[in-house]
Amino acid sequence: MSETPVDEMTFEQAMAELEQVVGQLERGDVALDASIKLYERGAELKKRCEKKLKEAEEKVAAITLDSQGNPTGTTPVDGQ
Amino acid sequence: MSDLIDDPYEGMNSPEFSVSELSGAIKRMIEGEFSHVRIKGEIGRVSLPRSGHVYLDLKDDKSVISGVIWKGVAARLPMRPEEGLEVVATGRITTFPGQSKYQIVIDDMKPAGVGALMAMLEKRKAQLQSEGLFDPARKKPLPYLPEVIGVVTSPSGAVIRDILHRLRDRFPRKVLIWPVAVQGERCAPEVVRGIEGFNALTPGGAMPRPDLIIVARGGGSIEDLWGFNEEAVARAAAASDIPLISAVGHETDTTLIDFVSDVRAPTPTAAAELAVPVRHELLAWVNEQDARMSRALSGALMTKGQRLRDLSRALPRPQSLVETPRQRLDMVSDRLPVGLSKQVQTKRIALSDASGLLRPTVLRRMVDAERRSVTAISDRLAPALVRNTRAKRDMFDARVTRLRPTQLVLQVQDMEEKLSRTVKNFVNVSHSSVVKWKEKITALDRLRETLGYKETLRRGYAVVRSDGDLVTQSTDVKGEVEIEFADGRIVVGKDTQGSKPLPKKAKPTPPEQGSLF
């Protein structure tokens, strides 16, 4: 298991570990106690993944540039 | 010949120009003749001063013509003049009377055909490749799910719409658009600025730094896409720390940036697909993982429960475990007393066998045997001693006979002879020495005699004494006088004192000489 707390994991990290946990459980070579702990860890990871997936939010902005071509700010773009 | 007298020669009467007049005439003639020319050549040295005008040379294998592109024209050109590029320029020739020079003022310039552009592109590609910028090891992996995507493209047009549309379909994300010109003179510097600008943003700032950059442009002619072939653009893309997807033109168009980007997308839409995964697929995946996990766990529980039941069924009854051993114990304990008494009996027989053999006669026989052997040995003791003594004496006698005195006697005789010889020698030597000394003494005595006063007496002298003392003067005479001659002494009285000359004849001998001997 990685050192990063589950709440701070990127989607990719959480996903990779979840996959590993599932693989371990399915192989069935883990002691019963450990497998219950694994399952709990898996549930946490799954929650993290779902959270990251729910964060899907579209926000489009264009950078505004000054006369020298340096960015000064952003303006929302409709994107339609 | 004098300066004053001109030599007449042909044409001497033609009119004379001033320099300015001639320069002006040339200018009019050239600018009139070449007011609109098309010229094909390779661009030589290019200089871009701050003024914005462009100065360059056009050349072929033999000649060079200087050229200038005024600032306003330069901005409109579809391409940036670059050294080594084959071009067709349109313009007019002007002269520069102040320096006796001429140049072409260029109004328009195009690459001399696609071939020239492609040749130049190949040259650049080779250059960047040799620097290792295309190295697959340099390519960065794209983030699986970027939070913020930066898009460098034109803010208006189908390209950005396509990208946003596809992103929304797959996984709506935050998108930052860096607006740039996607063709013409401004394209390359603006794209460079966009890539560098995104890299310069700080993560989590007011303008969030993208996790991924897409540089996109729709299809177009090679001249339209040329900005993405510029070396500066390629270098900026290579230098980007943020993973970069290039999506320029259609699938068949390949520009320089495609070689250095981390991933090349065939179209802008494809770039959006490469940028993000599909959300609902991921949701399904997560749910599937959850299901698999639950299945695995309950499956494991079930299997283990089943195994437990199986094992407990196979467990034998406790009674059956002890039955057999108990039976064995019974059998053995039955045999125990029988075995013991049998054992005692056997031992007793063995004991009685052994004690039967133990009798006094046996002991006596043993003692007798020992005694006999002692007697035999003691009988041999005395003769052995005698024999031994005799042997030793014989050995001693043999040695004594070997001891002879003759040798010793010879040695003593030898020594004695030596001693007598030495003694004889000594006697001889001492005797001859004594004789020699005697002779010497005799000789010396004779010498003494001759030297003594008695010899003098023999020659007629006499010694006179008075009262025992030697008389040397007449006044010394007191009483009687004794006169010594060679043959004896006489005493003369006082009355015979008158004969004085006699005592005068006496030769006094120094008494000391006498005392010497």
Which keywords apply here?
heterodimer, A: 80 residues, alpha+beta, Helix Hairpins, 2 helices, 2 strands, B: 517 residues, alpha/beta, OB fold (Dihydrolipoamide Acetyltransferase, E2P), five-stranded mixed barrel, five-stranded parallel β-sheet, 16 helices, 14 strands, 16% strand, flat
CATH topology annotation of the domain at 146-276 in chain B: Rossmann fold
Principal-axis shape of chain B? flat
What CATH calls the topology of chain A is Helix Hairpins
CATH superfamily of the domain at 146-276 in chain B: Dehydroquinase, class II
Mean pLDDT reading of chain A: 83
How does this structure look, described?
The complex is a heterodimer of chains A (80) and B (517). Chain A has 80 residues and is an alpha+beta fold. Chain A has a single domain (6-79), classed as Helix Hairpins, CATH 1.10.287. Chain A contains 2 helices and 2 strands. Chain A has helices at 11-27, 32-54; strands at residues 59-65, 71-76. A two-stranded antiparallel sheet of chain A has the order 1-2. In chain A, a hairpin with a 5-residue loop joins strand 1 and strand 2 (71-76). The mean pLDDT of chain A is 83. In chain B, helix 4 packs parallel to helix 8 (268-275) and helix 5 (187-200) packs parallel to helix 6 (231-239). Chain B is 51% helix and 16% strand. Among the domains of chain B are: 19-112, OB fold (Dihydrolipoamide Acetyltransferase, E2P) (Beta Barrel), CATH 2.40.50; 146-276, Dehydroquinase, class II (Rossmann fold), CATH 3.40.50; 383-450; 452-492, no CATH class. Chain B is flat, with a radius of gyration of 82 Å. In chain B, the strands form 3 sheets. A 5-stranded mixed barrel of chain B has the order 1-2-3-5-4. The chains are: A alpha+beta (80), B alpha/beta (517). At the A-B interface, helix 1, helix 2, strand 1 and strand 2 of A face helix 4, strand 7, helix 5 and helix 9 of B. Strand 1 (59-65) of chain A pairs parallel with strand 7 (174-179) of chain B, so a sheet runs across the interface.
